[in-house]
Specification:
Distance between the termini: 20 Å
Helix content: 25-40%
Strand content: 15-25%
Shape: globular
Strand order of the largest sheet: 5-1-2-3-4-7-6
């Protein structure tokens, strides 16, 4: 008989208390959380979005993600010769489906412990200066949003979608980051995880 995983045992102990959303933007996927669910002692950078109801976080290659127009060449360059990585964080107020009407969205439930572990992963991704402050690079792509310098190295086998898969795994979901490269791959994993809950 197969023994339940530690993450499933955790989920059954403290309940699937928090909703998160995985959003498919085409090249990139992202995770959305409710601002009031976030423990700011774990993810203090969220205080840059005090007016927001929801916060979306994504990660990717710096040059590709921050480009005015993403091209196939930039995608190839990102996979082979990264310019560094960035976090893209957006604060917004509308319901998730209304804010991203053209995007595929998967809703998932996670435990408090899993949610905190995931937001700690977000916090640990920020590159910091000598005073331990997050390095804000430029305004982001949507409304109240910012690009921040990231710590992890982007490459062909560690894409934005691999990063989202890793965050979902840390949150206690049955998602396997290995082999996830495309947005379609992570959305398939997210749907499977949602169906198994």
């Amino acid at each position: 008989m197969r023994r339940p995983s530690a993450s499933r045992e955790t989920a059954s102990r403290d309940g699937l208390a928090h909703t998160i959303w995985v959003v498919d933007h085409g090249w990139h996927t992202a995770i959305v959380v409710r601002r009031t669910d976030i423990d700011a002692t774990i993810w203090p950078e969220v205080n840059d979005f005090v007016e927001a109801t929801f916060v979306e976080v994504a990660w990717g290659d710096r040059e590709f993600y921050m480009a005015d127009r993403a091209t196939g060449w930039l995608a190839v360059k990102a996979a082979l010769f990264t310019s560094g990585s960035v976090l893209h964080v957006v604060g917004f107020g509308a319901p998730v489906d209304a804010y991203f009407p053209a995007s595929d969205v998967v809703e998932l439930r996670v435990s408090r412990r899993g949610f905190d572990a995931m937001t700690r992963l977000f916090h640990e991704e920020y590159q910091r200066d000598e005073q331990s402050r997050s390095a804000r690079l430029a305004p982001g792509l949507d409304g109240a949003s910012w690009f921040y310098a990231g710590r992890s190295r982007y490459h062909l086998f560690n894409t934005c979608n691999t990063w989202v898969a890793r965050a979902l795994r840390v949150a206690g979901l049955d998602v396997t980051p290995a082999g996830i490269v495309t947005a379609g791959g992570i959305m398939q994993e997210a749907r499977r995880a949602a169906a198994s809950r």
